Amino acid sequence: MKILVTGATGFIGAAVARQLSQQHHEVLALSRSDAAAAKLRVAGLTPVAGDFAVPASLAAPAAQVDAIVSTASIGQVEGTPDGFAKDRDAVAVMTKALGDSGKPLIFTSGSAIFGVFTKGEASPAVFDEDHPAPLPASVFAPPEAEIPPPFIDAFGGAMAPRAETERDVLKAAGVRGIVIRPVSSTARARATTCPISSPWPRSTAPRLTWERGASGRATSTSTT
Fold it and tell me: I need a surface site. Which of 102, 109, 140, 143 has the fewest CB within 10 A?
């Protein structure tokens, strides 16, 4: 198959692209320069002109493949509601480009969409895949968590467009939409956290983290 992987030079995207290439699929990866294209070729990938931050540039690459795995996220980099809105717009362009082909479109979201701030304590809350998203502020930031209002607004504002992207992918009539919510991605003992813009220094701002308890269920916690 010919598969477009967005974010193919990122942590998750690179792992996905490498695995698909090893399975003898032709993997297309977005490239914004000749230098970037050369690096992709060395990695065994096929570079195509495109920039995830410029949605219109994604239409042509998306239209020429058999499947799309979208791991890129401007929102994860910028940590702002506007960044996650840009993700939504980019995925919308690729969805439209696939038309009524019935081809698979896999969107990598994240479990932060069900993150709950609990002052570092494990939460008994369990959210299955059918639970409405995003969570209201009264759920993800209960009063006892003492989360500052600006942070609540930033986090809620970021998860709203992410939830919209999920719904758009799953409800797209012409494609086989799939949404994946990784709990965390680790390498060399480093774990990812959800980067949400806030007025506090990184060392003191609340952070979402996740842990897997004895039950095997992933629970969200917060630290300050």
Answer: 143
